[in-house]
Amino acid sequence: MAKGLLLAGEPMGLLIAQSEGSLDSVAGFTLAVAGAEFNVATGAARLGHFVSYLTKLGNDPFSTRITNTLTANKIDSSNVLTSDTNTTGFMLKSKVSKGDPEIFYFRKGSAASTLDASDVEKIDFSKFDYVHLTGIFPALTDSTRAAMMALIKKAKELGLFISFDPNLRPQLWPSQEVMVKTLNELASYADLVLPGCGEGKILCGSEDPSKINDFYRSLGARMVVTKLGPDGALVREGDNEYKVPGFIIDKVVDTVGAGDGFACGVITGLMEDLSLEKAVERGAAIGAIQCTFAGDNEGLPTQEQLKEFMQSHKRVAL
């Protein structure tokens, strides 16, 4: 069993509409916590792993809610920093019965966006042997970009296992050129890259999962897992390529957080010494489970719940 998993990102207050309709027309919202890295952290902690989260929060009710949620999920907060001058980011999400929900961010100038490379120097890396990063945090500011580059280089230098999910958010980047250059540079330090086919079209010029795998292998990744949505994933491990099928579910409630659940499954599988194929199978299961819940991370399972799902649900035909 691995020592621990370190993540870095921006957890945000999440206001979820209570009724369907455009965000400017609904009357009520419920409060939760969101963030791609937060979702992965929550999933890994629920599966029994030691998880720590590098971020920066403001001094406000959203910050308190996030800190309490980290504690409730047994996520280590010793790397959570506080700003007295900048507030915690938050976001709105619409309620839908089909298709993807409408999202609106309030994160410009947030406390997390001020995290910088000097904050990375405060981390005790001896607690970890796995690091997971996404392409969202480096999109926020020049400061967070420098911080993530410092973090991934330090992790590489120390021999930690690095996983990277591009998790494209084009609206957060100053330009597509900067986005592509930065994300592919970060990916070049990773042991495991987790792109989607749509992301591949933007980042490496192809939607073909095999060509996407080729591209990230050529950058240096030992493992590339290109996600195929409900169909599963195409895996490249060294020179060996194979498909891992997804799981069949009765109804999709909300796809938000499915990719984070998938990443959580793959990473924790490797942390538990599963083969990459079995780890990806676990990722497909958690991604499918997450699609059956309305929240971004409410469906993330315990080990027992995961085992029950994998035993009771059929796989997509190869």
- The structural class is alpha/beta
Question: What kind of sheet is the major sheet?
Answer: 9 strands, mixed
Helix content: 25-40%
β-strand number: 13
Indicate the low-confidence ranges by residue numbers. none
**For the CA atoms, what is the radius of gyration?**
18 Å
The general outline is globular
Count up the helices.
11
Alpha carbon gap, first and last residue: 31 Å
Rounded average pLDDT: 94
**String of helices and strands:** EEEHEHEEEHEHHEHEHHEEEHHH
How much of the sequence is in beta strands? 15-25%
Description:
With 318 residues, the chain is of the alpha/beta class. The chain has 11 helices and 13 strands. The strands form 2 sheets. It has a 9-stranded mixed beta sheet, sandwiched between helices. Strands 3-2-6-7 form a 4-stranded mixed beta sheet. The longest helix is centred in the middle third of the chain and has 17 residues.
